[in-house]
Amino acid sequence: MSLSSLGLTAEQEALYRRLLRVPGAAAEGPALGRLRELGLVDSTSAPVPPATAVNVLLQRRAEEIRRQLPHLDLIWDLVTELSEEHRGRRPTRAIEHIGNPMTLTHRIHTMLVDRPGEFSHIDGRTSTGESLWPDLRDQAPFRRALAAGLNSRTLLAAHAVHRPERNADARSRHARGDLHRTTTEPLHDVTVVNRTVAFAPADPADPEAGTLQIRHPGLVSLLTDVFDGMWARAHDLEELPVTPVEQQVLHALARHPTDETAARSVQLSVRKFRAHVADLMARLGAHSRFQAALLAKERGWL
């Protein structure tokens, strides 16, 4: 299990692990300096406990994600600006308003038939669970594009698959080649076709407002990059959910050095706490508490 997903290089990780195994081992160089900068070793080159190290790295990763969210807001502000430009009837080649859902479906199907390359979709369902546009993936042209090699990816809100019907639908589509992942990040409806054309609701609060077709290369590239980043951070459908108690146990596992203090923090007996830990480690395929904390974070359980 590597710490690279939490921001350490192979050299930095190897040094930290060696200092854990051999207290007082001689160490010097840029890797040691970086570990000190991160707070993973102290001024005497003694490593902090693994639980503390994981917590430090997780907090840094969470901060990186928080810094990316304003980037998303900027995108939607730009979409709003383009929408206002359209409503003002100023000529533009970057955006077009599509009011008829059938027209929207036909255009996307035509693009996929001409060149079945990529179809990237963020499913930002409304609170009622209704889509802001018809699901063109249920129709024959889309299925033919999949058969012709279309790389189709769909992002869902993690809470959406808690509903049995959404879970079953996502798994069925995934099995047919329309790959699905879930995320806890904020979602807005958007579709990008072949990395060249994007579609977004003209008004996310009004399903009847129609759709914006966006061809501005810079904006489409930005939306594509955001999707790729979210997809990389998202989680597979096969990943097992955890109960609130199990999530508390995982947090305690990462924050406390002993079972006794961890169990007290979540108001469980040591025996019950250890039973939860053993079950979670088995489900994660972890060989140590340290590895369990890392895997749980990677899967979005923490």
Can you describe this structure?
- It is a single chain.
- With 302 residues, this protein is an alpha+beta fold.
- It folds into 3 domains: 48 residues, no CATH class; 171 residues, Endonuclease Chain A (Endonuclease, Chain A, 2-Layer Sandwich); 63 residues, Winged helix-like DNA-binding domain superfamily/Winged helix DNA-binding domain (Arc Repressor Mutant, subunit A, Orthogonal Bundle).
- The protein is 51% helix and 12% strand.
- The chain has 11 helices and 8 strands.
- An 8-stranded mixed β-sheet has the order 1-7-6-5-2-3-4-8, sandwiched between helices.
- Helix 4 runs parallel beside helix 5 and helix 10 packs across helix 11.
- The protein is elongated.
- It starts with 9 loop residues before the first helix and ends with a helix.
State the main characteristics.
12% strand, Arc Repressor Mutant, subunit A, 11 helices, Endonuclease, Chain A, 302 residues, eight-stranded mixed β-sheet, single chain, alpha+beta
Number of discrete helical segments: 11
Amount of helix: 40-55%
Strand content: 5-15%
> What is the chain-wise order of helices and strands?
HHHEHEHEHEEEEHEHHHH
Strand order, sheet with most strands: 1-7-6-5-2-3-4-8
- By CATH reckoning, the class of the largest domain would read Alpha Beta
Q: What is the strand tally?
A: 8
Q: Which class best fits the helix and strand makeup?
A: alpha+beta
Our measurement of the CA-to-CA distance between the termini, rounded to an integer number of angstroms, reads: 17 Å
Largest β-sheet summary: 8 strands, mixed
Bulk shape:
elongated
List unreliable stretches of 5+ residues. Answer: none
Q: What is the rounded Rg? A: 23 Å
CATH homologous superfamily annotation of the largest domain: Endonuclease Chain A
Number of domain modules: 3
**Which second-level CATH architecture of the largest domain applies?**
2-Layer Sandwich
* CATH fold description of the largest domain: Endonuclease, Chain A
Average per-residue pLDDT, rounded, comes to 79
Oligomer: single chain
